[in-house]
Write a structure and sequence with these properties.
With 197 residues, this protein is mainly α. Helix content is 78%, strand content 0%.
Length: 197
C-alpha cells in the first residue's frame, strides 16, 4: 500500500530528508527496470548488480539535491547509463593494457606504454595511495569490499558491525579517495573511483 502512495518525485523529496524507507521503496521500484538495461549495455552479468548498487549509492550520496529534480526516472537512468559507460571505458583501457602486455611478451621486447596505459596505472596508484591513508577500520572495510568483493551485509557479519555502519564507512571512504584524486589532478565521478581499486 505504501508503494502506491508516493510518486517518484515525492520519494525523492522524502529521501532528501533522509527517509530510508522511501529509499528502499524507490530501490525496489527501479531495480527490475535498471538490471536488464545495464546488463544489455555492459553484457557483463557479474557487474550488473554492482552498477545497480553504485547507482543507488550515488542517489543516497546526492540526496541533498533530490528535492529539486523534476524527473527522477530520467535522473536515475542517466546515472545508470553513465556508470555503465564508465565501466565499458575502464574495460577498454584494461583491454589495451592487456594487449600491450601480450604484444610485449610475444615480441620479447619492451613496448612503450600508451598514454592511456600510463594514465590508467597512475590513477590506480593514486587510488591505492589514498586508500592507504584511510583510518584502520575504514581501510579494512574498503579492502573487504574492493579486494575480496564482499557485499555490505557480508562485511557487516565478518566485522560484527551494522550494515549501516559499513555502508556509511564505504561512502566516506569513496568521498575521501575522490578528494585525494581531485587534489592529484584527476576529476572523476565517485562511481568511477569505486571501480578502480
Amino acid at each position: 500500500m505504501y508503494a502506491h502512495l508516493y510518486n517518484d518525485k515525492e520519494l525523492f523529496r522524502l529521501i532528501s530528508e533522509g527517509d530510508e524507507s522511501a529509499f528502499r521503496l524507490l530501490f525496489r521500484r527501479y531495480v527490475p527496470e535498471l538490471r536488464p538495461l545495464i546488463l544489455h549495455l555492459t553484457k557483463a552479468p557479474a557487474v550488473t548488480d554492482d552498477i545497480v548498487q553504485e547507482t543507488f549509492l550515488r542517489l543516497w550520496i546526492s540526496r541533498d539535491k533530490l528535492a529539486g529534480i523534476e524527473n527522477p526516472r530520467s535522473w536515475l537512468l542517466r546515472i545508470a547509463f553513465h556508470q555503465s559507460f564508465s565501466y565499458l571505458r575502464k574495460q577498454a583501457v584494461h583491454h589495451k593494457v592487456m594487449n600491450a602486455i601480450t604484444v610485449s611478451t610475444a615480441a620479447e621486447e619492451q613496448v612503450s606504454p600508451t598514454e592511456d596505459t600510463l594514465r590508467y596505472h597512475s590513477l590506480l596508484t593514486q587510488v591505492r595511495t589514498a586508500a592507504g591513508q584511510l583510518p584502520p577500520q575504514a581501510k579494512r572495510i574498503y579492502l573487504l569490499s574492493r579486494d575480496k568483493g564482499l557485499k555490505i551485509p557480508e562485511i557487516a557479519r565478518e566485522l560484527s558491525l551494522s550494515p549501516n555502519t559499513v555502508k556509511n564507512s564505504l561512502v566516506r571512504s569513496l568521498q575521501f579517495i575522490r578528494k585525494q584524486l581531485e587534489l592529484a589532478g584527476y576529476l572523476l565521478p565517485l562511481l568511477v573511483v569505486s571501480w578502480l581499486a
